[in-house]
């Protein structure tokens, strides 16, 4: 599936004129994974429009085929998934390779935990470093058998069993863990309950409802949520329209906000309230972002974003907002580097266990671009002077797409060009990022001098 060579491809962004135009970003990664998974579990044919064709999601498509579903790309660009109903997956005869995708890895571990066979999982070196105990513990409590190398990380094998429902309080705010438990609960008789102290993205709950299941969500005192799911409900195929990914739109929005004179409209962006923290935060910093045409499609809130460049000011980002913008902190760090004053971002322990240690990777890159900051255990305090940082950094991306794109955004507006060591990682979530930026007038080019 991965067609690129093993040779890293350095990519450079340099400052040109302002960004201008109207664009659409690729489909939401979280919703795309789930549409393939639930499509494969529902009886009948599910048609998906706007699926993200990034490497992470293609891993899930391949895995669902290995588990016996028919997954096909149609001539009109939509995707079709034919499932046989909950509990009807087939034993894969080869290892499921999850590549760089923590979401595919954790959701599918939950999915196969109730299947009467053993599924073997592997991934790339980034995924092999990521913690899996957070999924393993609740799945073992339900009765699954998980065998891994020491430390509980990938590669590992999940032997499915007849599971028992659990009542589980998430120790970390993680939609992936919540979703793994709900997927394990699908074919488990009885009531599974997941309590989350801080609400996390609810695409799994929305999609279960979209496929005809009943999910009961109760708001708790103190801001948490309880999710109840009665196992062994039927799922019925339903068409899905995947909105544009707000996490991808965030790169464009920040680039337009920091590059003087820019005026960009991003249409069809998913604005689920548990995903829109970056836009709320940018606005608090003084960004000129207007949300237009708010509407609901296939159970998700969608709108268009009109972003114009403006002066940004440092703020303190409320730590409790972190789950609603967890993937957007790297690019927020870039925005903060152009702002006037201190931006304080804390409560971000989870950033240390993403595709890379995002606090460390960003800190190293910001330093090489001349940004003033203080690194904390759980975040960064960035101090800007309202001017473009020097730039000029050579950035190590550590197999992390969001580190690559964040620093390319920096390079579009910094004084000197910024080079990332390997641009191929952007294929994970945002195929065509450089071309799309190019269409708006930004200059991002592969380094051909190798
Ligand atoms: C995701 C949840 C988040 C996010 C990831 C996608 C999902 O991870 O960082 O990119 O689709 O459920 P956690 O739930 O582990 O925070």
Folded structure, characterized:
The protein is α/β, with parallel strands linked by helices and 450 residues long. It has two domains: 11-27 and 243-446, UDP-n-acetylglucosamine1-carboxyvinyl-transferase, Chain; 29-241, Alpha-beta prism (UDP-n-acetylglucosamine1-carboxyvinyl-transferase, Chain), CATH 3.65.10.10. Helices cover 29% and strands 26% of the residues. The strands form six sheets. Strands 22-23-1-24 form a four-stranded mixed sheet. Strand 18 (316-317), helix 10 (329-338) and strand 19 form a beta-alpha-beta unit. Helix 3 runs parallel beside helix 6. 54% of the residues are buried. The structure holds shikimate-3-phosphate (S3P). Shikimate-3-phosphate binds next to helix 6.
